[in-house]
């Protein structure tokens, strides 16, 4: 009997997204995957950093998400590691996202891939790009938090 993955375990995160964008809304979308891709995801062979979501013909697609095939992949399968993957959402959600993306400055960004009830889900966000000074503020905040944590750690010793 096959072992089911945990109910909600992370596969991959897009850490660059929080640095480059402000998130307005988050959505959880299903993914259309091939068998070899699911096996590779179980092994953690995925890179989401360069991924982005586009709208084509009223449907959402994930582009740039790289899933590297396992060395033990079947010989009759021709794996394409950067294949475009279709995202599954309700029609109303897709329509709402299309309207928002057509507004100036909004884009759809993949945040993470995770397991949910034995299926792979992609969390996407409606995001607005950060300006350079906002990115500097993010770095300052992060460094400030590190300094506070170091001070607290040294004080507790």
Number of individual domains: 1
- Provide the spatial order of strands within the biggest beta sheet: 1-8-9-2-7-5-4
Distance between the termini: 50 Å
Could you name the CATH topology? Small Protein B, Chain: A
CATH superfamily: Small protein B
| Helical residue percent band | 25-40%
Element string (H = helix, E = strand): EHEHEEEEEHEEH
Task: Characterise this structure.
- Residues 133-157 are annotated as: Disordered.
- This is SsrA-binding protein.
- GO terms for molecular function: RNA binding.
- A seven-stranded antiparallel β-sheet has the order 1-8-9-2-7-5-4.
- The mean pLDDT is 83.
- It has a single domain (10-129), classed as Small protein B (Small Protein B, Chain: A, Beta Barrel).
- It contains four helices and nine strands; from the N terminus they run βαβαβββββαββα.
- With 157 residues, the chain is α+β, with helices and mostly antiparallel strands.
Keywords:
157 residues, alpha+beta, Small Protein B, Chain: A, 4 helices
Strands, helices and their partners?
Elements: E1 10-13, H1 15-20, E2 21-31, H2 35-42, E3 46-47, E4 52-56, E5 59-63, E6 66-67, E7 85-88, H3 91-101, E8 106-116, E9 119-129, H4 132-156
Antiparallel strand pairs: 1-8, 2-7, 2-9, 3-6, 4-5, 5-7, 8-9
Main location: cytoplasm
Protein name: SsrA-binding protein
Subcellular location: Cytoplasm
């Amino acid at each position: 009997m096959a072992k089911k993955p945990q109910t909600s375990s992370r596969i991959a995160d897009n850490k660059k997204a929080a640095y480059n964008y402000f998130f307005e809304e988050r959505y959880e979308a299903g993914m259309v995957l091939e068998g070899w891709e699911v096996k590779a995801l179980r092994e953690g062979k995925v890179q989401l950093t360069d991924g982005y979501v586009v709208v084509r013909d009223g449907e959402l697609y994930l582009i740039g998400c790289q899933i590297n095939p396992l060395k033990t992949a079947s010989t009759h399968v021709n794996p394409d590691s950067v294949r475009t993957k279709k995202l599954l959402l309700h029609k109303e959600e897709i329509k709402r996202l299309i309207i928002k993306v057509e507004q100036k400055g909004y884009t759809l960004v993949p945040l993470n891939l995770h397991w949910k009830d034995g299926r792979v889900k992609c969390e996407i966000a409606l995001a607005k790009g950060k300006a350079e000074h906002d990115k500097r503020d993010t770095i300052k905040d992060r460094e400030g938090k590190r300094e506070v944590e170091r001070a607290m750690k040294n004080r507790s010793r």
